[in-house]
Amino acid sequence: MFERQPHNIQTEKAVLWCIMISNDLMYHVDLNGNEFYSSFHRLVWMAMQDLKNDRKVIDMITLSKKIGEEYWNEIMDIAMCVMTTWWFEWYVDDLKDLYYRREILKHAKVLEWSSKSERVDIQSVVQSSYTFFSDLMSKWTEEQTTQQVIDDMIANAGNPANMIGLRGLDELDTVLWWVRWGEITIVAARPWQGKSVLSNNLASNLMTQWVKSMTISLEMPKNQLMQRIFSIRYWIRKKDFDKWSPEIIMDKLAKWWYVEDYTKLPDYIYLSTGKSIDADIYNIIYRSYYRDWVGVFIIDYIGLMSTSTKQQSRAYEIWYISGKLKQISMELWVHIVILSQINRSGANRPKLEDLKDSWSLEQDADYVIGLQNEKDDRWLTNQLDILVLKNRNWIVRDISYKQIWLKVTNEIIK
């Protein structure tokens, strides 16, 4: 009885090789090493943990140096067992499932021996078994009971840490009733209507409440992004960067009492560009959350994202991406802002049905904000019309803000 322990060596190799392919996966995998049945695979996992803590690259060469070059053939045996990291989460779930089954069988052996021994207190064995299986099931399912949900809800009632304000846009905060963690906001507009402007203002405003944000831009480089945020936060226009010297810019920052704020900017605003494959962006989100505790992610924009596997159509591709982002926001308890274009056909006023490429954006989003920009003079004074099209917390309405350069001010235009 219980001779063969449940395990799958190929699954263990797949998990280890996926991490060698993409080191970022180490930051969002919940394993302690005991899940590996093979003693050599446990040794490799511990070496990976050490390399991660030392902030070193995890690959076949660094692993062989860490655990010994005599294990080179064994490490090579792990390599190339899978060709993609796409199914990494499934491999990890399967690894955990087999580990929990082994734990149950181990405990069953103890119960079998205890039932045959007269010197063992059966009542204490049953009680310990009940505790063991209860703990194991809570780890296996990771589900809260209804009572735990109620207790958490009451304990967190009125806690401002559960909500994120759009400081500097007070009326929008009131209408949305403050956005919350674990939710998704869609900002939709036609080209040249202010999507990136609003997202950059949001990143600047979040820093005011000490919330870390990351802007993942797929259409502009980091220096342009930072120039926009500088323009919004410190009233330094883009053309000033072209004609002012570094000394003049630093003198302006000192004159306007912005130096202390400027030194803290890298700790609260993170930028990433150039990654369009969805799996790469998911890894960026996981890594930034676990390494830097980033709480808000802004994706500019979803129309430039693509999946690593071919889908039936573009609509199904967007459906898959938005569903995955919704899953990540709830899993990590972060807020994700997704910029999206709307169809050019139809009336000038944006509507929910105008969201481009997919119906799923409207379904997955907790808030949908449409934008219109009345351009009398784009570089002097603008009017940015914010249309709340969907709001799960309260009402929908239109708000018009005054925009100066790239800065969306708190002044409402009636």
How would you describe the overall organization of this protein?
It is a single chain. This protein is α/β, with parallel strands linked by helices. It has helices at residues 9-21, 39-53, 60-67, 72-78, 88-116, 122-141, 146-155, 170-176, 195-208, 222-234, 238-243, 246-255, 259-268, 278-292, 314-332, 360-364; strands at residues 163-164, 179-180, 184-189, 213-217, 269-273, 296-300, 335-341, 367-377, 381-391, 398-404, 407-412. The strands form 2 sheets. A 9-stranded mixed sheet has the order 5-4-6-7-3-8-9-10-11, with helices on both faces. A two-stranded antiparallel ribbon has the order 1-2. It is globular, with a radius of gyration of 26 Å. The mean pLDDT is 78.
Mean pLDDT over the residues: 78
Give me the secondary-structure category: alpha/beta
Share of β-strand residues: 15-25%
Outline type: globular
Output the radius of gyration. Answer: 26 Å
Low-confidence stretches: none
User: What distance separates the N and C termini?
Assistant: 79 Å
Strand order of the largest sheet: 5-4-6-7-3-8-9-10-11
Largest sheet: 9 strands, mixed
Order of helices and strands: HHHHHHHEHEEHEHHHHEHEHEHEEEE
Helix content: 40-55%
Give the beta-strand count.
11
The helix tally amounts to 16
